[in-house]
Design brief:
mainly alpha
Amino acid sequence: MTGKTEQTAAAEALGYEQARDELIEVVRRLEAGGTTLEESLAFWERGEELAKVCRRWLDGARARLDAALAEEEQEGAGDDEN
């Protein structure tokens, strides 16, 4: 496995809060400046990976909420028929 593939796999294993917190730190370091171009690119790439992880967690949470709401509506409609 290459270093980048290992980093991506490690990012995907993070929980939402962990990924969010690390993303905040990456942004802080980029905004602070003082890094080389290579370091800045590495931070940016890591930030992109972390943002994708956060988006997947949020999308999954939205899907679960939508499914629960749809189930609740179906149960409510079934109650109305009785």
